[in-house]
């Protein structure tokens, strides 16, 4: 399963807010075997959000959009997702009923709170108020981290792929000196290889088989100055 993550917010683009939602989602998706192919930050603008959602929906199995839900002037994500699919924003009776069960009346909320894309599947916000939605294979979640995480937990089982196994080996050699051995490693084993230099070079080995990952890591330890 291939997925894209779209995080919405001007505050992310100017650096006022750290994009922890993208990191959290990528970690959870990777743990479920989902390959994240894109992480994109877009401003609070309907055309930009709609364009990216439309493009990624056509290209990937699932799109997760987080941020821009609520009653304020810059909360335009639902409008943009509706536009991406050519749908109207309409009062969602299921979302309204769920909020009523929690003690919220129409007088307590802005009218737009329960306006969702037509024919969507609403997602309850167990940690907040603004509901999320599923439109075809696009999932719209809040931007507040606690709300986003709680809502993702409700749909986590809908994301699945081939779970991979990861091992790391620290090597006390310059990264440039390891290039030939990285090539040999990829030729000998069915693995992906990443290298991350710092005080030492951390070699990251990813494989679908735990045995294959172990064999590749053992080869690195044998053929490099492992720490």
UniProtKB/TrEMBL annotation:
Pfam families, alphabetized: MoCF_biosynth (PF00994)
Gene3D superfamilies cross-referenced by the UniProt entry: MoaB/Mog-like domain
Signal peptide: none
MoaB/Mog domain ranges (all copies): 4-162
Top-level lineage group: Archaea
NCBIfam families tied to this protein: molyb_syn
Protein name per the record: Competence/damage-inducible protein A
